[in-house]
Amino acid sequence: MMTQGTTVPSPVGAAIGRCIGIGLMNSLWRPRVLGAWRVPATGPLILAGNHTHNLDGPMLIGTCPRPVHFLVKKEAFIGPLNPFLRSIGQLQVDRSSADRTAVTTALGVLERGGVLGIFPEGRRGEGDFAELRSGIAYFAVRSGAPVVPVAVLGSARAGRMIPALPPLRFAPLRLCSWIWPSDAKLRIDVVFGAPFEAGDSSGKRTRTALDAATTRIQERLAAHLEYARRATGRL
Questions:
Q1: Under a CB-based contact definition with an 8 Å cutoff, are residues 68 and 14 in contact?
Q2: Which neighbouring-strand residues pair with 73?
Q3: How many C-beta atoms lie closer than 10 Å to residue 167's C-beta?
Q4: Domain boundaries in the chain?
Q5: Which of 123, 232, 129 is nearest to 188 (CA)?
Q6: Which top CATH class is 11-231?
Q7: 181-208, pLDDT tens digit by residue?
Q8: pLDDT per position as a tens digit, 19-71
Q9: How many CB atoms lie within 10 A of CB 82?
């Protein structure tokens, strides 16, 4: 439940953020998006993605068919990014402790029927869902919202001349192929999976129930990642 004084970010802001993301991601990287039709058109939803690059969040904001409120580490809310991220409906979270304000605000997004975006691994890494934090299970069990797995493939790759960003696919820049490779194998793929329920229908929120839900989510996310790699020919 929302506590007094807690403000849920504006859905209008998230919708504006989605428009910005669509423009930037499709003009600069032109990702291939598969399975977007699997995302329910209405109702509360948790979008769970793998995380290998800083671009993954904006990429999902720009490719998801619905506006997304992502839980974003507080370290990103600095300088001009602070008011910008807040204005487009993103949620600040302190990963070093149990951030009650972030938890309450995130639950508020779901109570309102919005989409909550989470990188359940907690930080950038291999992006293989090998180890999940329990937060996603708590949100899923507490809210009853289905989880939609999504895999972003190709955003991080070793051996780039400009390692901070994936190869741009903006047409004029592809002429400079020695800087921005245009090979189709270097594109970014975003693959959405089918929604699933993380809980066991018992309604229990015990540690045992949350641990079981975390295991269930991890298995589904890992299976989706395997499917996404096969579907995009990245095995």
A1: yes
A2: 93
A3: 21
A4: 11-231
A5: 232
A6: alpha beta
A7: 445 567 899 999 999 999 877 767 788 8
A8: 999 999 999 999 999 999 999 999 999 999 998 888 999 999 999 999 999 99
A9: 13
